[in-house]
Amino acid sequence: MKLIDSEKIFDTLKRPLKDLRISVIDRCNFRCVYCMPKELFGDDFPFLPQYEMLTFEEIERITSIFVSLGVEKIRLTGGEPLLRKDLPHLVERLNHIDGVKDIALTTNGVHLSKYAQQLKDAGLHRVNVSLDSLDDKQFGKINGRNVKVSTVLKGIEAAEKAGLFIKVNMVVKKGMNEDQIIPMAKFFKEKNITLRFIEFMDVGNSNGWDLSQVISKKEIVEMIDKEMPLQPLDPNYFGEVASRYRYVDSKTEIGIISSVTDSFCSSCTRIRLSADGKIYTCLFADKGFDVRTLLREKASDQELKESIKNVWFNRKDRYSDERLEQTIKGNKRKNKIEMSYIGG
Ligand code: SAM
Ligand code: SF4
Ligand code: SF4
């Protein structure tokens, strides 16, 4: 697809727009305790009906507009993105947009063995697989569906075999899985796969987040460094979310995503598109901008472009920078969007 006139845009804090995260579905085959607790996401949960979700044509069109405004990297997420029918076909369509430099996917890995090769052939570059424990009993409890560790590991193997670049994401929550920090670090060091530890975040309104349940970046690094010495590395690029470290005796890296204790809003270049076509300028937003209506009311490319520019020009978000102060003051933001709706 041909690029419409290209330009770079900056928000009120001079942050450029660079990354687009597309949630392709709000459903998931897991019920992770920190994301979609099964008590709240039961059989009667009102997930989006098909007609409310953007079609692949609509996603492709809006993505090409984002690309004309500086987006270079795209991440597909969910819910569980591999539950969206024909996802490799969407990857192929996005890969044909001039100016797209990188397409990545975040998945729980359950369907990865089935789709890894098709995704690679369609033009996917990278995959982040979420795995919070190597212990079946603990992992089954966390994912809420008793899915086994081996199912996810098979997905990772298939992705490796297909030639995808892989990282593994582990959410760390006190009392849930901190005993797995070292076993997971050792396991993925051996495999030469970057493991990224994610501080438990107060996304959405359903996961019962409390500051006391957060294991900080500092604690994680100290724990690993004691067993397997680490050295810090510089970021690869402006806006990199994870702080990088390398094991002193190997080439393998780890990353820490410290949204809570060491936030990175000043370099946040990400915009998010929900499965039902709303744009969010922050993971912790409470309202989005509806592009689906514009798309379905036949707005021109120029009209769509102007609306997105306007959203980005007005962006002031720095929720994580303000969180600690607001939490201490007891000011909780209500009605935040759920992580399963907007993706990570
Ligand atoms: N279902 C896919 C998966 O789990 O990889 C993609 C969507 S999921 C919402 C994206 C990422 O968000 C996952 O790596 C997940 O572990 C992370 N996540 C979800 N809830 C979180 C929370 N409360 N704190 C930190 N990370 C969270
Ligand atoms: Fe599903 Fe991913 Fe949320 Fe787990 S973290 S419930 S796999 S969307
Ligand atoms: Fe970006 Fe919002 Fe996260 Fe800050 S809190 S890094 S602005 S998504």
UniProtKB/TrEMBL annotation:
**Record flagged with keyword S-adenosyl-L-methionine:** yes
Source organism superkingdom: Bacteria
Which reactions fall under this protein's catalytic activity?
GTP + AH2 + S-adenosyl-L-methionine = (8S)-3',8-cyclo-7,8-dihydroguanosine 5'-triphosphate + 5'-deoxyadenosine + L-methionine + A + H(+)
Q: Which InterPro entries match?
A: Aldolase_TIM (IPR013785), Elp3/MiaA/NifB-like_rSAM (IPR006638), MoaA (IPR013483), MoaA-like (IPR040064), MoaA_NifB_PqqE_Fe-S-bd_CS (IPR000385), MoaA_twitch (IPR010505), MoCo_biosynth_MoaA/MoaC (IPR050105), rSAM (IPR007197)
Q: What is this protein called?
A: GTP 3',8-cyclase
Specify which residues bind GTP according to the UniProt entry for this protein.
Answer: R21, R75, T106, K167, R270, I271, R272
Alphabetical list of Pfam families matching this protein: Mob_synth_C, Radical_SAM
**Ranges where the Radical SAM core domain occurs:** 12-231
What's a BP term from Gene Ontology annotated to this protein? Mo-molybdopterin cofactor biosynthetic process
Give the coiled coil ranges: none
> What EC class does the entry list?
lyase
Say what the protein does.
Catalyzes the cyclization of GTP to (8S)-3',8-cyclo-7,8-dihydroguanosine 5'-triphosphate.
Positions binding S-adenosyl-L-methionine in this chain are Y34, G79, S130, M201
> What keywords are annotated for this sequence in UniProt?
4Fe-4S, GTP-binding, Iron, Iron-sulfur, Lyase, Metal-binding, Molybdenum cofactor biosynthesis, Nucleotide-binding, S-adenosyl-L-methionine
Say which species the protein is native to: Calidifontibacillus erzurumensis
UniProt-listed SMART domains: Elp3
